[in-house]
Every structure is written in structure tokens, then in C-alpha cells.
Amino acid sequence: MEFDEIVIGSGLVALGAVLGIERERSVLVIGGPQPGRTLYYGTAARAPCGYLGSGGLGNFWHGVIPTGLRDNFAGSPPAEFARLFGYFYRRANIAAKLGAPWLFVPWRPIRPDRHWRRLRAERGAALQIVAGLVVSFEAGSAGVVVRTQTDVYRGRRLWVCAGAMHTPPLLDRSLGTRISKPTVSDHVICYLGQTRHAHAARPGRSERAPDGVWFEAEYNRAGTALLTRKPAHFGFRTLDYGIEQRGVFGLPTGGVLAKLARAGSPGLIAEALYNRAALLPRSSVHSIYAQIVVADAHELPADNGALTPRVAIIRAATDRVRDELDYPGLIRSRCPELFIPGIHLHHSLDAGALHAAGVNRDDSALHVLDASVYPAIGPEHHSFKLMLAAALRTRSLSGGLR
Questions:
Q1: What is the mean pLDDT of residues 277-287?
Q2: What angle in degrees, to the nearest 10, is found between the helix axes of 256-263 and 266-277?
Q3: Which of 205, 191, 195 is nearest to 237 (CA)?
Q4: What is the DSSP string of 14-73?
Q5: CA torsion sign, 328 to 330 to 336 to 341?
Q6: Is the pLDDT of residue 261 over 80?
Q7: Is the separation of the CB atoms in 10 and 32 below 8 Å?
Q8: Alpha-carbon gap, residue 131 to 33, rounded angstroms
Q9: Distance CA 369, CA 390 (A)
Q10: Average pLDDT estimate for 354-381
Q11: What pLDDT score does 400 carry?
């Protein structure tokens, strides 16, 4: 059977891609092997950087959606952002937040597997989802041929959404030339310090909604860092103690409270409760964190092993933000070398090589939609914006999401 559209991957970007495709078109989603395989930052296996399997990294996503509309690489008007947001969260009023630095943290993050079931029910036989590891593909004027370890599929067009870690080796194998970069970019989270008493009296605003919680955020003057303030409880009132704890226990992404309870860190539990549900908002001490995009932050392993952080490059990026920061009453961190990976890997493909290979042209049968093709994503969380960009791109070529 030949499909109109074949999608490699089943994470958030793949979900956005299928939402953009006209529902009458025949679509095959190759969702990854079962069981899947998780890749981690470093060797401690605390924070995932890739997942080869059903749902991709969407299985670990906190679900944070920024509304500042900065670095809007989807090129979309606010109405398109609001429309896709409403597909998942119908009861949260987003209109008043668009264009302002708010972060929406849903009670239920967008988990791809649940929404694939929803799409299967809506589209019936027009949408097929299979498990499998794609070994290689061929793309040309006659269409595409995709080979998994066990099957061969044919289609008119191919959308690659395998993620920043898994798309590069797939393209290298399939195109017979080096498309991947030796490095990958990321967000990092660093601790700037604390504000106390009078300066901490007005915490960042938060608002509860039926579908989640809104948190007010800030940007630094240059717009290169997303700043958030967190009430500091228990040991977190001590300067640098919080980032040291977070550095030890990583950035939990699933079963958060259970993991933190086992870790035995009351301050980390209190911060997680605030991050998730705006609980315990008042404190005379607030911690100030910055989320910063760092170009070429890690070396990519040739064998899909652990990423190697380029510590000097990460430190230079965080130091630039610290040096330029003018934050009222800030008591600065004495441990500027500490940072946390942000699980926002991107730009692992060479743009020039992609162009030379004819990828992503309107008349091409081969398109790459995931974060591997984006050289700049800005300081905000980018997952939802990538979904929107994917939906608008597939819609522009195949029609859908009307």
C-alpha cells in the first residue's frame, strides 16, 4: 500500500505534523521500536535527552507553554497559536496572555500516546500507526521508500520527526553524506542568586485555571534569558544550596514528587510543588533562575551514547547573562559553574548540507520538522512552538487543521 504521507517519529512534533495534514489523506506514522530506549545526559541517568520509542521525549515533557511569542519560528499569527492551544486545553483562556511573558503549566501535559488514540478515533482507517525502527529511506521525484528492520513502506512524501538525537544518524545513513553536526545546542538552567525581604515581597504572579496554572516570567534586557523566581523554603534559603541540590538530583520529569520524596530534600519538594501547582508561594527569600539557549552546548556521540557537555562554552554563555544582569536586590550566586540541562536539544543538522541535499523545499518529497533543523529557538520552552511550526508546515503542503 502507498500512503500519501509517512511520518517518522511519534513525539510532539510528529503529533503536530499529523494535525496539520488533511484528515482525508492516508497517513502512516512509524512510531519507533517497542520497547523503547532512553538516552540520558551524562552517565547518571537522571535527565533524558532522547527517547527512541512511542511518544518520544513527549513522555517526559513538563508541558510548559510560553505565551510571549518570542522567537516565533512558526511564523504564525497569535490566532494560530491560540487555535492549537485550544485543541488541547479548551478551558484555559489564552487570549489575555498572548504576547506577554507568561508560562502555562498544565495539570495534564500533552502526552503523545493519549492524543494518538484520539486522532485514530477521529480519522479511522486514514491514519495508521505502527511500531518499528527505521533503518533507512529513499526520497526522490517518484516518492519515498522507508525501510524498518522488518518492513518496507512507500509513500508520496516523508516527514522526519525523530528528534535532535535520532534524526541526524538516520539522515546520514539514508542520504549517503554527512548531514549531521558534531555538536548539538541546548537550553541550560542556571542559578543567578537570591532576592530577600523587600525585594522578594512581590513574587512572580501566578493564576490558577481549569486546565493548569499560569506563571509570570521575565526576560533579561537583551532578551537572551528567561528569568523565573521561585520562593525559597527550608535549606533553599541558603545561597547556592538549591542549585547544589538540583545539580545532585537532576531535573525530574516524571513521578516528580515520588522521586523527590526518595531524595529526601524538603526544599526541592517545596520548589517542585510551586513549579507544578503554585503551592507555597510566599517566602521572604526568592531564588532567581535563568533559562539560556547555548549554541553547540554538547558534543554528539558517534554511537548515540552519552552527550559530552562543552563546559567552557556553557560557562561563557551563562557568564554573559550574569555580567549583563541588573536585577534589583540580587545577592549573586557564588557557584556560577553549576547548571542544569534543559532537555531542549536542537540544531544537530548542518543547514548547508540540508539545502544541498534538497531537504525541506516545497517541491521535495523529504522534510525534516523536528528541533534538529533549528539553529535558534530563543530562551523560552520550545516544544509547543515546534508542534505549531510542524502543523503549519504540513498544512501548507497537504491541507488540514482547518
A1: 90
A2: 170
A3: 195
A4: HHHHHHHS-TTS-EEEE-B-SS-EEEEBSSS--SEEEEESTTGGGGT----EE-S-TT-T
A5: negative
A6: no
A7: yes
A8: 5
A9: 6
A10: 94
A11: 46
DSSP output for 191-221: EEEEEEGGGGSSPPPEEEETTEEEEE-EE-T
In DSSP terms, which residues pair with 132 in a beta bridge? 32
Please check whether residue 331 is in contact with residue 193, taking contact to mean a CB–CB distance below 8 angstroms: yes
The better pLDDT of the pair 202, 81 is held by: 81
Half-sphere exposure of residue 110: CA atoms within 13 angstroms, side-chain side: 28
Cell reading at 40: 540520558
Residue 126 is classified by DSSP as G
Using CB atoms within 10 Å of the CB of residue 258, give its burial: 0 to 12 exposed, 13 to 18 middle, 19+ buried: exposed
- CA 143 to CA 245: how far, in whole Å? 52
**pLDDT per residue as tens digits for the range 109-118:** 999 999 999 9
Backbone angles phi, psi at 108, to 5 degrees: -125, 105
- Quote the cell numbers at residue 107: 495539570
Q: How many C-beta atoms lie closer than 10 Å to residue 351's C-beta?
A: 15
**Which residue intervals of 124-265 are DSSP H helices?**
167-175, 241-249, 256-263
Count the neighbouring beta carbons within 10 Å of the beta carbon of residue 206.
17
* Mean pLDDT estimate for the chain: 89
CA distances, 220 to each of 67, 174, 199, 325 (Å): 16, 42, 17, 7
Calculate what percentage of the chain has a pLDDT beyond 90.
69
Instruction: Assess whether pLDDT exceeds 70 at residue 70.
Output: yes
More confident residue, 376 or 354: 354
Neighbours of 24 (CB within 10 A): 11
Which residues have a Cβ under 8 Å from the Cβ of 186 and sit 6 or more positions away? 293, 294, 297, 298, 341, 342, 344, 345, 346
* Total-model pTM: 0.92
Q: Which three cell numbers stand for residue 167?
A: 534524526
Region 43-62 average pLDDT: 88
The percent helix, strand, coil of the chain (3-state, each to 5) is 30, 30, 40
Does residue 74 have a pLDDT over 70?
no
Share of the chain above pLDDT 70, in %: 90
First to last CA, the chain: 27
Confidence label for 399 from pLDDT (cuts 50, 70 and 90): low
Q: Parallel, antiparallel, or unpaired: how do β-strands 27-30 and 2-8 relate?
A: parallel
